[in-house]
């Protein structure tokens, strides 16, 4: 959610910020073959979750699905009139940290889900991923069907758009600047302007809607997962920044005309033929009832950070055992446990899905996009569009026997947000022990 306006701290007295903004501390480690050192960072809540009120008071600028038209008659006026407040991380949003561990609760009071970014000072921590590996521990045991505890990278500005957009006076300190490959149009502010034009309330979410503008950028999904299924998925875009039409945003029937590859090139072990690799008991190779160490390596053609990205590798560590990613077992896909251009092309061919990833340049484009650095995102969410069936069930549901349709063991009737929020409000995900470093330096048996 690329909320880009907000709290004009130069003009807004502290007395008008009802809740002080105190970022929960979350350290991580930078590693080489010689060892690891601790980096003291924190997390910041995405701007779209925050209370948006008048600059000179506490009148809501946005409530439920609606903008206050007297304050927000147009995009620029809204940016001038409205400000973001600080966040009560644990009390309102169910976000808590301790040392190197971050817990994201699903439902806290009236709040549902959350999204946070790793921040260092007043800018997001930037990660240069090529020829490096990223490792973390995760506990998904409390994530049932229909939920997603996600950890991923997006090509956001380090300052949250503060320097680029004159309407943004809050920056990374208040979680502004979000973008991803879905070109989200539910963001209240994009590019320093309020997304009020064409705003329509969601038919399934009483607290959301969409405007005419979307916020697009390359996305590297390290981990989209619950206790049933997981996927690692690169997405690329032809351009970064706002999209302004259904065609450029890839909305509805224009999905494959947009700036970005919304489908991505996913590696879900269940989807590609190994149904016993990952699941919630000891009969699976990876038992999701226990903490999992997840390692993702970004391999270049010449073994340097300036080379071209050619492979993404996944390794797991659990109970002292190093476990390689499951091999594919689908006719028409060369047996592999790595994501490469060849793997991406073959998966699109066997499923009949449009190869937007390849059309936009595949790994070559992804490699170029990574050179600017990427921002770490962690979130917990339910899915008001497709009930998370694309992750953990059968999707699309109208042809269950199609190659690649089966993605997990959840029922096709599962994942409805009303059901998940009512029946599993106490769900949560815990990310911990984050490490980033040279290849094979961040994990051991």
From TrEMBL:
<keyword id="KW-0732">Signal</keyword>
<keyword id="KW-0119">Carbohydrate metabolism</keyword>
<dbReference type="GO" id="GO:0030245">
    <property type="term" value="P:cellulose catabolic process"/>
</dbReference>
<dbReference type="InterPro" id="IPR001722">
    <property type="entry name" value="Glyco_hydro_7"/>
</dbReference>
<dbReference type="InterPro" id="IPR013320">
    <property type="entry name" value="ConA-like_dom_sf"/>
</dbReference>
<comment type="similarity">
    <text>Belongs to the glycosyl hydrolase 7 (cellulase C) family.</text>
</comment>
<keyword id="KW-0136">Cellulose degradation</keyword>
<dbReference type="GO" id="GO:0016162">
    <property type="term" value="F:cellulose 1,4-beta-cellobiosidase activity"/>
</dbReference>
<protein>
    <recommendedName>
        <fullName>Glucanase</fullName>
        <ecNumber>3.2.1.-</ecNumber>
    </recommendedName>
</protein>
<keyword id="KW-0378">Hydrolase</keyword>
<dbReference type="InterPro" id="IPR037019">
    <property type="entry name" value="Glyco_hydro_7_sf"/>
</dbReference>
<keyword id="KW-0326">Glycosidase</keyword>
<keyword id="KW-0624">Polysaccharide degradation</keyword>
<dbReference type="Pfam" id="PF00840">
    <property type="entry name" value="Glyco_hydro_7"/>
</dbReference>
């Amino acid at each position: 959610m690329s909320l880009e306006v907000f709290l004009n701290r130069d003009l807004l007295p502290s007395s008008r910020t009802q809740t002080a903004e105190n970022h929960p501390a979350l350290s991580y480690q930078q590693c080489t073959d010689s060892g690891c050192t601790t980096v003291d960072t924190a997390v910041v809540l995405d701007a779209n979750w925050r209370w948006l009120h008048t600059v000179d008071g506490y009148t809501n600028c946005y409530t439920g699905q609606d903008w206050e038209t007297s304050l927000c008659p147009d995009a620029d006026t809204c940016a001038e009139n409205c400000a973001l407040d600080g966040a009560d991380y644990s009390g309102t949003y169910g976000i808590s940290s301790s040392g190197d561990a971050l817990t994201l609760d699903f439902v806290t009071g009236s709040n549902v889900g959350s999204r946070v970014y790793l921040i260092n000072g007043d800018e997001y921590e930037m990660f240069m991923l090529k020829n490096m590996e990223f490792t973390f521990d995760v506990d998904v045991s409390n994530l049932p069907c229909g939920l997603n505890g996600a950890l991923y990278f997006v090509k956001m500005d380090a300052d949250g758009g503060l320097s680029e957009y004159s309407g943004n006076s809050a920056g990374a300190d208040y979680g502004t600047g979000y973008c991803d490959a879905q070109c989200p149009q539910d963001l209240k502010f994009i590019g320093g302007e309020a997304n009020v034009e064409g705003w329509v309330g969601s038919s399934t979410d009483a607290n959301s809607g969409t405007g005419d503008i979307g916020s697009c950028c390359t996305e590297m999904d390290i981990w989209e997962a619950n206790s049933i299924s997981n996927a690692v998925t690169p997405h690329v875009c032809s351009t970064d920044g706002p999209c302004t039409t259904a065609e450029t945003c890839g909305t509805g029937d224009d999905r494959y005309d947009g700036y970005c590859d919304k489908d991505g090139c996913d590696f879900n072990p269940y989807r590609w033929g190994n149904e016993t690799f990952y699941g919630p008991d000891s009969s699976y190779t990876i038992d999701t009832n226990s903490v999992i160490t997840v390692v993702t390596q970004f391999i270049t053609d010449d073994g340097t950070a300036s080379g071209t990205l050619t492979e993404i590798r996944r390794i797991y560590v659990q109970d002292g055992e190093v476990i390689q990613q499951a091999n594919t077992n689908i006719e028409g896909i060369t047996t592999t446990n790595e994501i490469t251009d060849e793997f991406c092309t073959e998966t699109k061919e066997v499923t009949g899905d449009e190869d937007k990833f390849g059309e936009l340049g595949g790994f070559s484009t992804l490699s170029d996009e990574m050179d600017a650095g990427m921002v770490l995102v962690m979130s917990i969410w339910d899915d008001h569009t497709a009930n998370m069936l694309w992750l953990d069930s059968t999707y699309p549901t109208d042809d269950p026997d199609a190659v690649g349709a089966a993605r997990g063991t959840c029922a096709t009737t599962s994942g409805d947000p009303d059901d998940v929020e009512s029946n599993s409000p106490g769900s949560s995900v815990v990310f911990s022990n984050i490490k980033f470093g040279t290849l094979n330096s961040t994990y051991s048996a």
